């Protein structure tokens, strides 16, 4: 059988070579380099920065025994579950379901605000939220007339979860809007005539058509959120490591703690977790579609 579009094997390989090269340079090589660094005691300065020693799986063992790593892992699970799996998923679906029935001015304004939060640079969005939640002159405390609450200090993870839900909902909203457009209107009308409303309508008619989209969206926002460094811009992992999710923990260990080898090992663990999550979601997607 000839190759696609009648191309011979040598020509097809030549066309694929640039893509393979880009993947190798920007994905495979950094991953392999991270694994190598993670097996050493490499540091930013000192003798180990010139001639690092191979420690095998010592850094991984250290991470598994490190209370700081356990704390960062738990906070990452909390951050992903709260702001992505539940927050962005639920809010994005609700917006996609409700906005088509809203008045045009309301729909346009809401979609514009949600998309604006998504397309603005992370630094700009983080500054806006810092201005909102700052204790002494923050907008929220000014409106509430209460300057005793330091939101980013007293409730750092709650602030990050709400912030990331607001910032990332646009993607889920757009994906679910496209997914809901595939639901046959005739089935929806028939279900309503039969008395199906609310959750029953969603469960029996809507969800069977969009469950593949739900799994795809959940996979993407889970991976993006698990690797999100934006929390550093708001809380820098504080106070006292109370919001130090794994990407921030890796940064602190590498550039502040001067332990590049250990940070690389933690990065490898995070990469492995991402791969496991991706495989699980893909298996569910294959079974349910």
UniProtKB/TrEMBL annotation:
Pfam families recorded: BPD_transp_1
Coiled-coil residues: none
Single GO cellular component term: plasma membrane
Membrane topology annotation: Multi-pass membrane protein
Top-rank taxon: Bacteria
Subcellular location: Cell membrane
Main location as per UniProt: membrane
CDD domains attached to this UniProt entry: TM_PBP2
TM helices/strands, residue ranges: 12-36, 72-100, 112-132, 260-282
GO terms for biological process, alphabetical: transmembrane transport
InterPro entries cross-referenced by the UniProt entry: MetI-like, MetI-like_sf
Keyword set includes Lipid metabolism: no
PROSITE patterns listed in its UniProt record: ABC_TM1 (PS50928)
Homology family: Belongs to the binding-protein-dependent transport system permease family.
Protein name: Sugar ABC transporter permease
């Amino acid at each position: 059988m000839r190759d696609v579009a009648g191309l011979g094997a040598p020509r097809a390989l030549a066309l694929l070579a640039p893509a393979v090269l880009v993947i190798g340079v920007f994905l495979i090589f950094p991953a392999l380099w991270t694994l190598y660094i993670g097996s050493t005691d490499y540091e930013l300065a000192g003798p180990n920065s010139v001639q690092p020693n191979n420690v095998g799986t010592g850094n991984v063992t250290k991470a598994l025994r490190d209370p700081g790593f356990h704390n960062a892992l738990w906070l990452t699970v909390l951050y992903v579950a709260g702001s992505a799996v539940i927050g962005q998923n639920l809010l994005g679906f609700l917006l996609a379901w409700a906005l088509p029935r809203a008045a045009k001015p309301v729909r346009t304004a809401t979609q514009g605000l949600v998309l604006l939060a998504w397309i603005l640079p992370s630094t700009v969005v983080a500054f806006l939220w810092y201005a909102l939640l700052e204790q002494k002159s923050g907008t929220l405390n000014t409106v509430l007339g209460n300057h005793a609450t330091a939101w980013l200090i007293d409730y750092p993870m709650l602030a990050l979860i709400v912030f990331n839900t607001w910032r990332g909902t646009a993607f889920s909203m757009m994906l679910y809007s496209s997914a809901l457009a595939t639901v046959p209107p005739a089935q929806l009308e028939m279900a309503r005539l039969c008395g199906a409303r609310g959750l029953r309508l969603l469960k029996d008619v809507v969800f069977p058509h969009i469950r593949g989209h739900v799994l795809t969206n959940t996979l993407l926002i889970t991976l993006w959120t698990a690797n999100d460094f934006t929390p550093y811009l708001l809380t820098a992992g504080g106070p006292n490591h109370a919001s130090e999710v794994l990407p921030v923990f890796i940064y602190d260990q590498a550039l502040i703690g001067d332990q590049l080898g250990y940070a690389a090992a933690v990065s490898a663990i995070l990469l492995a977790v991402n791969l496991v999550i991706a495989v699980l979601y893909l298996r569910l997607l294959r079974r349910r579609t």
